[in-house]
UniProtKB/TrEMBL annotation:
Residues 134-157 are annotated as: Disordered. Residues 433-685 form the DNA-directed RNA polymerase III subunit RPC5 C-terminal domain. PANTHER family: DNA-DIRECTED RNA POLYMERASE III SUBUNIT RPC5, DNA-DIRECTED RNA POLYMERASES III 80 KDA POLYPEPTIDE RNA POLYMERASE III SUBUNIT 5. Residues 134-143 have a biased composition (Basic and acidic residues). One of its GO terms (cellular component) is RNA polymerase III complex. This is DNA-directed RNA polymerase III subunit RPC5. It comes from Eurypyga helias. Keywords: DNA-directed RNA polymerase, Transcription. InterPro entries: RNA_pol_III_Rpc5, RPC5_C. It comes from the Eukaryota. The lineage of its organism: Eukaryota, Metazoa, Chordata, Craniata, Vertebrata. The keyword Transcription applies.
Length: 685
């Protein structure tokens, strides 16, 4: 059967569902006297004639109802002019809120024509005539009771009136009033009725309108909605249920779902995160992004919604206070709030501390707004002021100098605008000294103590250097008697430029790349506090030699980088105050390696290698006192000529030098015993 979609009566066709009628009353027996509709509400009211001559009609009941409604008098306002209930009113109600799945179908000559329904209305009898009868009854009772004198009527006419002025309606009260049943009924009553003309079933106009139920064009262009693939047609018949989405619990407004966040574009993700967090280091932001996110794209997006303050990103003011908004505390417009918050951010680019009174005096904003600004990016300290909540991110500043420079130029422009708006004085533009701000802190962390000590050493370096040279000159006279047999042991000798500094970042608070804060000469045995006792130097040498010997007996081949890593782990296992904490330089460690019977293997690495200088320095134990010493020496000689060697070349060389015919298993055993450390410099493939 071919199916066609008729469009002529689209959004005009309604289905009326009438009440069940007696079997003796056919459709032709019913006559529509009048009809009217309210289009917006889709409400219809029909007045239909009742066949009073039908044997099923009770005439006495009809007369009684007419008498109760209209009384004995008949005029134009009477509901039943014939003194008989000869008509009935039907009012409609919507049978379904969504009728998009329903259509009227007409079958003709092997074709099925469908017209979508615009509404389905159920007609029910209206009993408003009973309300009219009650009103008539109350009027008659009032007339029967009216026996009062004219004086009483005069007194009743005089009444005291109390005048009241209505209060201004709040927004919440207005919403409650709009949603009330009384208001909705009033709105519905205000819509005017549109009177309709009813055409009977056999009327020529009805015959003409019925032709619109058939599709006017049978071409494919007129019925593109019905040309669907089987899967699309099945989806239209059985659409997916959306109940699961409605049943999902709604998260609180202050809770951010990372799963939902990662479905958004990258720029929106960063904007939402910064708007919620306010202040964030770049490393933390990258950890919140999905795996595989390009850091360059993140940097490009973060600069659109945040500014760099002390190496950390702080959300821009216009993101928190969009245009056409105002302060919830004072009602100040968003433009003034952004200007005040920019001043606070700029102050934190100059110093770690900001005083609330100073901000309020410059911006002229209420204390609540100023407190909001400070709470976004700082923490209050008792008797100190407000300190920026995150430490200075030195790593980001070193890795991205171009972004730091660009942000600095932006802050210079913001500073120029703030100077014009607030007429800033010189004392506002000049940052206060760090010493004055950080004097006598109530709570000082270990990291802050180390930073303070470093700053103090740098300031007093010149005086300390003079004192050191003076002490060195005084001790030269006693050098012969005080010199111990430690020709191979030296106190840490580091240049000021940290070019070959040992990677002991975990202990920089104790070592900091210098010995007790001073740099010593290579042949010096002095410290900041004077000459180290000979017994102390001897103990340091013994401890260091024991560590190097035990390490190379376990792993015969090591790079300097791997050896330093193992030494740091060894230091971490030692108790506080151990002699090795006095400061061990890279040169001292390398000299001790050579003194314990190890040799440096000059492996010819390729020039384009990405390895660090410490990874290119290879040390190996030359004689371990076992049966594989000769084999190990042959292998080291081979790798001193080439950094990558094939297994068959190693097997042939071992057979020639050692005079033994070694098979594959024996060669593997020699390689495993000789290079058991598994360092990444000798890759045997």
């Amino acid at each position: 059967i071919d199916v066609f979609l008729a469009r002529s009566l689209l959004e005009k066709l309604y289905l009326f569902q009438y009440p069940i009628r007696p079997a003796s009353m056919t459709y032709d027996d019913v006559t529509h006297l009048s009809a009217k509709i309210k289009p917006k509400q889709q409400k219809v009211e029909l007045e239909m004639a009742i066949d009073t001559l039908n044997p099923n009609y009770c005439r006495s009941k009809g007369e009684q109802i007419a008498l109760n409604v209209d009384g004995t008098c008949t005029d134009e306002t009477s509901t039943y002019s014939s003194k008989l209930m000869d008509k009935q009113t039907f009012c409609s109600s919507q049978a379904a809120s969504n009728v998009s799945r329903y259509a009227a179908a007409v079958y003709k000559k092997g074709e099925l024509h469908l017209t979508p329904l615009h509404g389905i209305l159920q007609l029910r009898p209206s009993f408003t005539y009973l309300d009219k009868a009650d009103a008539k009854h109350r009027e008659r009772e009032a007339a029967n009771e009216g026996g009062d004198s004219s004086q009483d009527e005069a007194e009743d006419d005089v009444k005291q009136i109390t005048v009241r002025f209505s209060r201004p309606e709040t927004e919440q009260a207005r919403q409650r009033r709009v949603q009330s049943y009384e208001f909705l009924q009033k709105r519905q009553a205000e819509e005017h009725w549109v009177h309709l003309h009813y055409y009977g079933l056999k009327d020529s106009r009805s015959e003409h309108e019925r032709q619109y139920l058939f599709s006017q064009g049978h071409g494919l262009a007129e019925n593109t909605e019905l040309i669907k693939s089987p899967s699309e047609y099945l989806m239209m018949l059985m659409p997916p249920s959306i109940e699961e989405d409605n049943d999902k619990p709604v998260a609180p407004s202050n809770v951010l779902s990372m799963a939902q966040l990662r479905t958004l574009p990258l720029a929106d993700q960063i904007k939402i995160l910064m708007k919620n967090v306010k202040v964030m280091p770049f490393a933390n932001l990258m950890s919140l992004m999905g795996s595989g996110t390009d850091s360059t794209a993140v940097l490009r997006c973060i600069q659109q919604v945040a500014m760099l303050v002390q190496g950390n990103w702080v959300v821009k003011s216009d993101v928190l206070y969009p245009k056409d908004t105002s302060s919830p505390h004072s009602g100040v417009p968003a433009e003034v709030l952004c200007r005040g918050r920019d001043f606070v951010m700029w102050k934190f680019t100059q110093d770690r501390w900001v005083v609330r009174k100073e901000v309020a005096a410059v911006t002229k904003l209420c204390p609540e707004d100023v407190k909001d600004f400070l709470e976004h990016m700082s923490v209050a300290r008792i008797n100190k002021g407000w300190e920026f909540m995150l430490p200075y991110d030195e790593d980001f500043v070193k890795k991205h100098p171009d972004i730091v420079q660009r942000q600095h130029m932006l802050w210079m422009g913001i500073q120029a605008k703030l100077e014009k708006v607030y007429n800033l004085l010189k004392e506002h533009l000049t940052p206060k000294r760090q010493e004055a701000q950080s004097a006598h802190p109530l709570l000082v962390s270990g990291e802050q103590r180390v930073n303070m000590a470093k700053a103090k050493v740098k300031q007093n370096y010149g005086q300390l250097e003079k004192d050191f040279q003076k002490q060195k000159a005084e001790l030269k006279s006693n050098e012969t008697s005080a010199k111990m047999d430690v020709s191979n042991i030296r106190i840490k000798e580091e240049p000021v430029s940290d070019e070959e500094a040992m990677d002991t970042s975990a202990y920089e608070g104790m070592n900091n790349g210098i010995t007790n804060g001073l740099h010593a000469e290579e042949d010096s045995t002095d410290s900041l506090n004077g000459h180290l006792p000979g017994g102390c130097i001897d103990r340091v040498a013994q401890e260091l030699k024991a560590f190097v010997s035990s390490t190379f007996k376990k792993q015969f081949v090591l790079t300097l980088s791997e050896l330093k890593r193992l030494f740091n782990l060894h230091l971490a296992s030692l108790p506080p105050g151990h002699t090795l904490f006095s400061g061990i330089s890279d040169k001292m460690l390398q000299d001790m390696v050579l003194d314990t019977g190890c040799k440096q293997i000059l492996v010819p690495f390729p020039p384009q290698t990405a390895a660090s200088p410490d990874e290119l320095k290879v040390y190996a134990l030359w004689e371990a006192g076992d049966t594989y010493d000769q084999h190990r020496q042959v292998l080291l000689e081979i790798f001193s000529k080439n950094y990558r060697v094939r297994r068959n070349v190693i097997q042939n060389q071992l057979s020639q030098e050692c005079g033994e015919d070694l098979n594959k298993q024996e060669v593997d055993r020699v390689l495993k015993v000789s290079f058991c450390s598994g360092v990444g410099l000798m890759q045997l493939k």
